[in-house]
DNA sequence: CCTTGACCTCAAGTGCGCTTGAACCATGAG
DNA sequence: CTCATGGTTCAAGCGCACTTGAGGTCAAGG
């Protein structure tokens, strides 16, 4: 399996090495193996980072993401992982729904030509409460 | 039309008064009318704030949101608003897609019982690139 | 009259998610 | 051998989105 240096990995995932070191420091990434003092990552780490980035974009904090991923490692934490995942599901649903409303609002607003996002009638249908 | 004090408004939209003052200070909210020195908001402001919160959750910075909403005010900025909105649409689409992948991943992972989010086979189908 | 409470301003502080800087080490090319 | 490249640690700094604190104003109520 292909091995990556921190710079190479950073390039692949579109981050800076400092960010990866930071992730390691807060326990989001496992402490990488060292070759002559340098971090060496298995290619599979890319998936984990992609996952982290997705979750992050979805509004999870790094601490929450660590919670989700740690559950994999800790054998006893399965229950915790279930609980966290289950509690987050409706949140994610709500979030997706809201984002779609926004997306459609922007699209409709462009289409309808009113050029006034705030007052656009098309936005009145849903009523984005709370 | 109903008028709101800052505290009342804050309660309605689930924020603190300080956040609303902050929004005003950065130009996200128009400088509210004052009655005896106090801010008085028209009820319609709730919609604007809801909009701001949605956009924010979708990953827009406050500066970007201000850009979107300012376009309403500035007559000449219609072109800018179109451009910004159009440029953001594919971003929003990509974002929704990614979030749905994450949501489904979490859901499937709960369902499949593998209890290993990171290595779950169900995640291998998509390949969250970039 | 005096207090209470909600509001005001302005400056400074907070937490998150990194980035930057200083000082150092190891490998490879010229 | 020398030096560039790219890595290391650790502490401090930064930008965003607010929050908090100090010190003051105003209107209603006991």
From TrEMBL, chains A, B:
Residues 1-71 form the HTH merR-type domain. It comes from the Bacteria. Keywords: DNA-binding. Pfam families: MerR_1 (PF13411). This is MerR family redox-sensitive transcriptional activator SoxR. It comes from Streptomyces avidinii. The lineage of its organism: Bacteria, Bacillati, Actinomycetota, Actinomycetes, Kitasatosporales.
